Amino acid sequence: MNSKYFLFSFIYIVLSFSIVQAQELTLFRQTLLPADSELLDSLKNANDDNTLNSIISNLRIKVEESDYSEESKKDLAAFLLKKALFDKNKPYEEFEGLLIEASELLPDNYYVESLWGDLLFLKQNFEDCIKHYESALNSNPEDADIMGLCGLAYVKTLYFEKALKYIEEYLAKSPNDDYFLMNAGLCAHKLNDFEEAINYYEKALEFAKDKERIKFLEAQIREAKEALASTSDSSKDEDQHFIITFAGNSEDDLSKMAFDSLNEIYDEVSQLINCDPGDRKFNVVFFLTEDYYNQNYNWSAASALENQIRVPLKTGYKSEEYVKGVLAHEFTHTMINLKTNNRAPLWIHEGLAQYQEFRTMYGSEENLRSDFVGIYENDFKENGLYIPLEQIPNYMRSKERKDVHRAYIASWLAIRYIGETYGESGFDTLLSTLGKGYSVSEAIKETTGDSYSDFQDDLKQWIQNQ
Questions:
Q1: Does residue 4 fall inside a structural domain?
Q2: pTM of the full predicted structure?
Q3: 346/325 same-domain check
Q4: Which residue in 215, 192, 196 sits closest to 205, CA to CA?
Q5: Whole-number Cα distances in Å, 222 to 136, 218, 226, 227, 228
Q6: Beta strands in 200-307 (DSSP E)
Q7: Do residues 158 and 334 lie in contact, with contact meaning Cβ atoms separated by under 8 Å?
Q8: How far is it, in rounded angstroms, from Cα 23 to Cα 436?
Q9: Domain limits at 211?
Q10: Distance, first Cα to last Cα, the chain
Q11: Out of 76, 114, 138, 388, which residue is the most buried by the measure of CB atoms under 10 Å away?
């Protein structure tokens, strides 16, 4: 390490994906030292707001007095970064200005950019942290840790192809890292490269020590092998937005309808929640029915996981309107995950997915699917049933199909209420606020102006008046 820099501060965080595994990652490994060696002790010992603010104020004056000399700018930038790190547990907006100021003093500086990326990673703002990590890598392309963190950030933003590139670069330097081997397998799995996924999983299994990780890897290997077998005679086609795998000879029947429907839905959902997927491609797999139900709940018409939509072929051969509705529902889930960084609660997920599904199938989000109508009329309208939104997951886990249906209906009603009362722009506000790391209560407050409890009181009254 350069003698002008030192190991400054460590923080270990747990990064969880949509799997049971987690990984300890080291952030804030090093930081910038001031050019003036007499300031070293001050930097090391300044650990309160008043001291840091006082030093920063004095250094700002010195920068101006020195006519912005490189040494004075570096001194000030070092303390600005220290203060941003000191404030890391505050809302990001409260210390962002410090990072901007440091960046203006030292443009494209490796230590400024890497720390900025780390702080955004900590706040789970993965899209923006990638920009700073990649800027840091332009200055120091050999930093394997940032390669790995950048790869994991791309995983969280559903850019699995880009994620795999960085993870493989990390693995070139640390080939026996079972956590990153596992994540390389997950990326390949999401890209429907099942053989490559199996190779990575099996190699990760060689080095894994954690019992839970071993169990997870074994399950992933089984699933990837099942997927490989069920799509071994499949065909694949892609366009600008979607990669579709067709099991058996289904491409002849489904290809044009699937691409036309998906691209129409792509535009509708992007507009509904104001989310631009950029150049991401989404995977859709039409499974043979038996193979599909080996991997999913028997009552599921289709499923979505991150960037992948899975549809059993018995669904694929129903009416075009039905298929479009199913695809609309599942694609909405993937877009919600993208916009919120996987932070949306179940009622928002299922409510918005149905809102788009019914609009696609029936021409209006107010038209409920036929098997829900009786429950809605009897339980909600006649008997005044209200399910608190925080109880939706419990109903969804019920073994009683009617309880599951009640949960879907309650979620749909909550989203309809937001759309009718606050306009569909409220969906953008709600999801964007969640995506910034705020709680559901804070997102509701930002969207409606009400507390979560008042919002639910108003929602209950609105349902009773329908």
A1: no
A2: 0.74
A3: no
A4: 215
A5: 39, 6, 6, 9, 10
A6: 235-238, 242-246, 282-287, 303-305
A7: yes
A8: 22
A9: 175-230
A10: 67
A11: 114
Q: CA-CA distance, 37 to 75, in Å (whole number)?
A: 10
The amino acid at residue 268 is E
Number of domains in the chain: 4
Cross-strand partners of 287: 312
Give the CA dihedral 336, 339, 344, 350, nearest 10 degrees: -10
**Residue 2 located in a structural domain:** no
Query: Residues with Cβ < 8 Å from 237, sequence gap 6 or more?
Result: 243, 244, 246, 251, 255, 259
Contact criterion met (CB below 8 Å) for 237 and 250: no
Give the Cα separation of 143 and 170 in Å (integer): 9
Query: One digit per residue, pLDDT tens: the chain, 466 residues?
Result: 333 332 233 333 333 333 333 344 578 887 899 999 999 999 999 989 999 999 999 999 999 999 999 999 999 999 999 999 999 999 999 999 999 999 999 999 999 999 999 999 999 889 899 999 999 999 999 999 999 999 999 998 889 999 999 999 999 999 999 999 999 999 999 888 899 999 999 999 999 999 999 999 999 999 888 778 777 677 788 889 998 887 766 556 677 888 998 999 999 999 999 999 988 888 888 876 555 445 554 445 677 777 778 777 654 455 777 888 889 999 999 999 999 988 899 999 999 999 999 999 999 999 998 889 999 999 999 999 999 999 999 999 998 999 999 999 999 999 999 999 999 999 999 999 999 888 999 999 999 999 999 999 999 999 989 8
DSSP string, 100-166: HHHHHHSTT-HHHHHHHHHHHHHTT-HHHHHHHHHHHHHH-TT-HHHHHHHHHHHHHTT-HHHHHHH
**CATH number where 76 lies:** 1.25.40.10
